[in-house]
What we know:
Blueprint: H1 19-23, H2 26-29, H3 37-47, H4 60-81
Amino acid sequence: MFESTPHPDGPGAQAPGHPFRATLPRRVLLPMPVFEPEVQAAMARAALRSQPMNWKRITVQDVKEFLMAYCACFMAIMAFMS
């Protein structure tokens, strides 16, 4: 996976400020990748989804379908209660 390379001992090398960090291998101090492969895959799947709906563009068909579902639920509850 990662190779543990010691810190360079050259004249221009700077060791980390804290003594504990100075004992860590160099691979630990490298910056992490921005996204993990699982996150990149999830982002790719999210890019395939449709754009969010603009609520200012509700059509008559949307209203009809909402009212039909509302009435069906209302009738089911009334039938259950009686």
